[in-house]
Design brief:
The complex is a heterotrimer of chains A (about 120), B (about 475) and C (about 425).
Chain A: E1 2-7, E2 16-22, E3 25-30, H1 35-46, E4 49-50, E5 53-59, E6 65-70, E7 74-75, H2 79-85, E8 90-92, E9 100-102, E10 112-114
Parallel strand pairs in A: 5-8
Antiparallel strand pairs in A: 1-2, 2-3, 4-7, 5-6, 6-10, 9-10
Chain B: E1 2-7, H1 11-20, E2 23-24, E3 27-30, E4 47-48, H2 59-78, E5 82-83, E6 87-91, H3 97-110, E7 116-119, H4 120-126, E8 136-140, E9 144-146, H5 148-161, E10 165-167, E11 172-178, E12 181-186, E13 189-198, H6 204-211, E14 218-228, E15 239-242, E16 252-255, E17 261-264, E18 268-269, H7 280-290, E19 302-313, E20 319-324, E21 327-331, H8 337-356, E22 359-360, H9 379-388, E23 395-397, E24 402-403, H10 404-412, H11 420-427, H12 440-451, E25 470-471
Parallel strand pairs in B: 1-3, 1-13, 3-10, 6-15, 13-21
Antiparallel strand pairs in B: 2-22, 4-9, 5-9, 6-8, 7-8, 11-12, 12-13, 14-17, 14-18, 14-19, 16-17, 20-21, 23-24
Helix pairs in contact in B: 1-5, 1-8, 2-8, 10-11, 10-12
Chain C: E1 6-9, H1 13-24, E2 30-33, E3 49-51, E4 60-61, H2 62-75, E5 80-81, E6 85-89, E7 95-99, E8 103-107, E9 111-114, E10 118-120, H3 123-126, E11 136-138, H4 139-149, E12 151-152, E13 156-160, H5 164-175, E14 179-185, H6 194-201, E15 208-210, E16 212-218, E17 225-232, E18 235-236, E19 242-245, E20 248-251, E21 255-257, H7 260-265, E22 269-270, E23 275-276, E24 289-291, H8 302-322, E25 332-336, E26 340-344, E27 347-348, E28 356-363, E29 367-376, E30 379-389, E31 395-400, H9 401-405, E32 413-419
Parallel strand pairs in C: 1-2, 1-9, 2-5, 9-24, 11-20, 13-14, 13-20, 14-15, 25-32
Antiparallel strand pairs in C: 3-4, 6-7, 7-8, 10-21, 16-17, 17-18, 17-19, 22-23, 25-27, 26-28, 28-31, 29-30, 29-32
Helix pairs in contact in C: 1-2, 1-8, 4-5, 5-6
The chains are: A alpha+beta (about 120), B alpha+beta (about 475), C alpha/beta (about 425).
């Protein structure tokens, strides 16, 4: 029986949660104060994922950089692959929130989208 | 071959350059840092001492009083910030009264005008924040405060305007005599000159000794300071010194010309001439001693602390004179060096003129206008200025209200700003309570644009002080 | 220059939310004055997500959250000036501002909303001894360089301060290729949200050293190293020094509301928050001058900034429409006890509150198993169990104004912590 302590990051409350696992299966989740905490804890111990936020350079825009994010969460272990995939990405202005900046980043199946409007200079 | 090469672009070197630029001569100032005013001249108490402290009969005393007398007119001629706010040397115990009187007598002998002793009642009326334990004080109405950067830039710009050249990032490694003059081996090659002026501050002993003068040793004497927010302006009106005595040697508490309050310095002799770091012990010492002559000092309003090194020589005297043919010392200029600088400039220029028999330059222009501060204009003038030059309508430093127009002026002066610190010392951008947190990215952008370089080349203070190491993900 | 009924100083999240609500409450002539080259304020450089959970029930990044409000401002056709710095606010509400196009100009609005945000505490105010090299940045300045300009301020980083900005920058620098060696925190607890400890430090194996501070900075031209030491009773313990080679020190040691203009106008400040002392309508000591957001007190969630600023906008609108409030309205000062460090507002006029009174506060330490209790005079009118209370997390209590009206004998309100 494996016992994992973690802090739920679903909301700012940060409930301390304890997960008991047996052979890679979740046996019990305690400490959460809402169902989201339960869901988060189960996911975090079996398949932890994260949203990755970053920036890319913009050419011909009023601003030099546009902030971006993964459209949905990706496996935690692939964070740096996503970052590397963005390394030399440059996008031309205008940039609109939600536009796809990089499709299927590092083969995760998740697009990277812009989170900032950048008008043309 | 130059006529004169001045080693060091601190306040002494720049004052000398300015005085020499009255003559027809090829003048070069070599400076190892990237700008003028980068050594002791940028890290001191900013006081123009009235001249009662320096021992009567010394060159220090003579030049201090002379320099102090020259300051008011010079401040108008060269447009730098100077204020004759007065000095008070506070006596904390009747036991120390003989020492107070001795200081007074010394000041009288030095020719300091207006000196008098004030007793407790008058002292407390003059300065409500004086300690309740103060018994009396020596009052010197001619004591003043100055912007040390402004003073140095004023000398430098006026010298440059009148033909003197400045070469930065050039470290003099060795001086050696040659036919007709001196050869300076520098980090940027050899420079030949008829006359050398050694105004190298902390390193003036090095060149003095190399030239063959009687052995001299400069000991760096570190002074740690606190600078308090401009909201503390008015805490004291005069510069408050504590008379050394029963309670030890205190620190001064003074207004600055820009409305801050400065507290310090320590006097710690160290070995390393580059060690301008403050230490916990030094700052603690200033904190402890600051509460002796004054009460309720709002030390919590500190916005920054710094340390400067004075070029102290055991004999505690200025060494100004021709040491070897064509080699003129301006060495061991510790306090009251800043106060004496106008007089030092004149004296050294006189010595050099005597050596080279220089001809006066009829085209010499003694005036210099400082960087225009729009805050000094009337609303109508201000509006007209922005219409003519919109850069004055963009505020870059919020804390000190410094506009892009002033920063552009600072960059395009000769010698002009090429780094964040260069802009800071000329315009005050970055000297406010947020300490450049808001304005530095913007100043970096302006510097890069005006100097025609990438922002990654911009430094805090030249040399290796780059602010940016690369671009996002470049090492990923 | 056209005159406006309402001038809002600051176009960040507070200014934007206030403008939207003031317009929706019927004020036509509103002008937002913003010093940067775009609206959005500090959110523009907060490219991480976690914003909007309360407001939009979505997790947005800073720019996206700002974008939602900027869109509303544009849809409502609310005028704004960019690259405009307000230089002065007078006691009579005269606003003096400056920009390239209009030059120096003055406005004479009926009401002003202060939304200037806050600034970071610099190294100089922390009295950290050592050299003064390049490579020392407050976390926010580094954030601006990385996120807005695309420049890396350093490669080997030490961070002092475990507030959210420090934690966020630990992750940010790591994801852009820098090596963050350690985050040191003076207090025995972190000032930031727990989610940030997990997602910014634990995820990347960055150690957090509580009860530690920087006692020396090496490197004359560029940072070369720093020394950490353990702290006891606020003082570094000799012999616990640890040296770190690094080229960058980021400081995240406190945010200070930026009240230069408020001071100039003579607005009374609360010495605990360094922000204006306000009543239940978010009005300062100068009638018709309101404050909201980080300039009032430093927030941790922008959602609460928007709520607070929205209220300020509505109250400013009421002020403009209905004129000066009844000066004789019953005013209850709010007292803080037992670990409650401050409250916003500092005074409540039950007759002027719109049905609901919102009290926000912070505690001065970490508390477990407490009850937050609010008293009208000697009578408890509200209590709620709180398993954990921390200085880094602002608390909100919303009371029906009727509860105060039901106690006309009470001459003050107390917000306190009691055992659960």
């Amino acid at each position: 029986m494996e016992k994992i302590d973690l802090i739920c990051i679903g909301c700012p409350m940060g409930c301390p949660i304890t997960v008991e696992m047996e052979n890679g299966e979740v046996v019990s989740v305690t400490g959460n104060t809402c169902p989201r905490g339960d869901a988060y804890a189960r996911k975090e111990v079996t398949n932890p994922t994260r949203i990755v936020t970053s920036t890319v350079r913009v050419t011909g825009g009023k601003l030099a950089m546009a902030s971006v994010k993964t459209a949905s969460d990706i496996p935690k272990g692939r964070i740096f692959d996503c970052v590397k995939a963005l390394k030399d990405v440059e996008i031309p202005a205008p940039v609109t929130i939600g536009q796809v900046v990089l499709k299927d980043a590092a083969g995760t199946g998740v697009d990277i989208i812009a989170t900032k409007n950048v008008p043309v200079a | 071959m130059y006529d004169i090469v001045i080693i060091g672009a601190g306040v002494s070197g720049c004052a000398i350059a300015r005085e020499l630029s009255r003559y027809k001569a090829d003048i070069l100032v070599v400076e190892r840092e990237e700008d003028v005013c980068c050594g002791t001249s940028k890290a001191n108490s900013a006081i123009v001492h009235a001249g009662f402290d320096a021992a009567h009969g010394t060159l220090m005393a003579k030049l201090n009083v002379e320099g102090s007398r020259m300051m008011p007119a010079l401040a108008k001629e060269l447009d730098f910030h100077y204020k004759q706010n007065g000095s008070l040397v506070v006596c904390m115990s009747e036991e120390d009264r003989p020492a107070l009187n001795k200081l007074y007598e010394n000041g009288l002998a030095n020719g300091v005008e207006g000196l008098r002793i004030v007793e407790k009642d008058e002292l407390q009326k003059m300065e409500p924040n004086i300690s309740d334990n103060a018994v009396a004080a020596l009052y010197a109405p001619t004591g003043g405060i100055v912007c040390p950067f402004g003073l140095t830039f004023a000398f430098a710009e006026n010298a440059a305007k009148n033909g003197a050249k400045f070469q930065f990032d050039t470290e003099v490694l060795e001086v050696a005599p040659m036919d007709g003059g001196w050869k300076l081996h520098t980090s940027k090659g050899d420079i030949e000159t008829k006359v050398v002026v050694n105004a190298a501050g902390l390193y003036s002993d090095k060149f003095h000794n190399q030239a063959g003068g009687a052995p001299m040793k400069i000991v760096p004497r570190r002074g740690d300071y606190f600078l308090l927010d401009r909201t503390t302006g008015g805490f004291v009106k005069n510069t408050i010194f504590q008379l050394p005595g029963k309670y030890g040697k205190g620190v001064l508490v003074s207004p600055t010309v820009h409305g801050n309050t400065i507290v310090g310095p320590t006097a710690i002799d160290i070995e390393d001439k580059e060690a301008t770091a403050t230490t916990q012990a030094g700052l603690d010492e200033v904190r402890e001693k600051s509460g002796i002559a004054v009460k309720n000092l709002p030390l919590r309003q500190v916005i920054t602390s710094f340390a400067g090194l004075r070029a102290h020589e055991a004999r505690h005297e200025f060494f100004i004179g021709e040491v070897k043919p064509g080699f003129v010392d301006c060495a061991a200029i510790e306090s009251p060096g800043l106060s004496s600088s106008p007089a030092i400039g004149k004296m050294v220029a006189g010595i050099v003129e005597g050596i080279l028999h220089l001809e006066k330059d009829p085209a010499f222009d003694p005036t210099r206008k400082g960087i225009l501060d729009p805050k000094t204009l009337s609303p109508e003038e201000h509006a007209a200025l922005i219409k003519k030059n919109p850069a004055y309508g963009t505020v870059i430093c919020r804390c000190e209200t410094v506009t892009e127009g002033e920063i552009l002026d600072a960059i395009h002066r000769v010698p002009g700003a090429r780094s964040l610190d260069g802009v800071k010392r000329r315009t005050r951008a970055g000297m406010g309570r947020c300490q450049a947190g808001f304005c530095s990215p913007r100043v970096m952008e302006i510097l890069a644009r005006e100097l025609g370089v990438d922002q990654s080349e911009i430094t805090k203070a030249g040399g290796k002080s780059k602010l940016i190491v690369g671009t996002n993900k470049d090492k990923v | 220059m056209k005159e406006y009924e309402l001038v809002i100083i600051g176009g960040g999240p507070a200014g934007l939310a206030a403008a939207v609500e003031a317009r929706k409450s019927g004020i036509q002539d509103i002008l937002i004055l913003e010093r940067d080259n775009e609206l959005g304020g500090i959110l523009n450089q907060c490219i991480h997500n976690g914003f909007g959970l309360h407001t939009f029930k979505e997790e947005l990044t800073g720019p996206e959250y700002a974008g939602r409000f900027i869109q509303q401002v544009k849809e409502l056709d609310i005028p704004y000036k960019l690259n405009t710095m307000v230089l002065d606010l007078a006691a009579d509400k005269t606003v003096t501002a400056m920009n390239r196009e209009d030059g120096l100009f003055q406005l004479h609005p009926k009401a002003v909303i202060l939304a200037m945000g806050c600034r970071e505490r610099p190294r100089g105010a922390l009295n950290i001894p050592g050299y003064r090299p390049a490579g020392i940045f407050t976390a926010g300045t580094a954030q601006r360089l990385v996120n807005m300009e695309g420049y890396m301020p350093g490669r080997k980083v030490v961070i002092l301060g475990s507030g959210d900005i420090g934690l966020i920058m630990a992750r940010r620098m790591t994801l852009e290729g820098a090596q963050v060696q350690v985050v040191a925190e003076l207090m025995p607890y972190s000032g930031g949200l727990k989610r940030n400890i997990v997602q910014c430090l634990d995820d990347y194996g960055i150690p957090l050293k509580l009860s530690h501070t920087v006692v020396n900075i090496e490197g004359k031209e560029r940072v070369e190293g720093i020394t950490l030491a353990r702290v006891e009773n606020g003082k570094p313990v000799p012999g616990t020094e640890e040296h770190y080679d690094c080229d960058t020190l980021l400081l995240s040691c406190g945010l200070i509301p930026e009240n230069e203009l408020s001071r100039a106008a003579g607005v009374e400040l609360n010495p605990v928050t360094n922000g204006p002392a306000v009543n239940e309508s978010l009005e300062t000591s100068i009638p018709g001058v309101f404050a909201a957001g980080n300039v009032l007190h430093v927030h941790d969630l922008v959602d609460y900034v928007s709520e607070e600023a929205g209220a300020a906008g509505r109250h400013a609108a009421k002020y403009i429409q209905a004129g000066c409030k009844d000066e004789t309205a019953r005013t209850l000062p709010v007292k803080c006890e037992n670990g409650v460090r401050y409250t916003v507002p500092v005074a409540v006029r039950p007759d002027c509150a719109d049905g609901l009174v919102t009290l926000r506060f912070r505690v001065g330490n970490v508390y477990k198993n407490k009850k937050v209790a609010v008293y009208a005079g000697d009578t408890c009118i509200f209590s709620r169990k709180r398993p954990v209370l921390a200085p880094g997390e602002m608390e909100t209590v919303q009371l029906k104004a009727q509860l105060l009206l039901d106690h006309p004998e009470a001459d003050h309100i107390t917000v306190t912590l009691e055992e659960a």
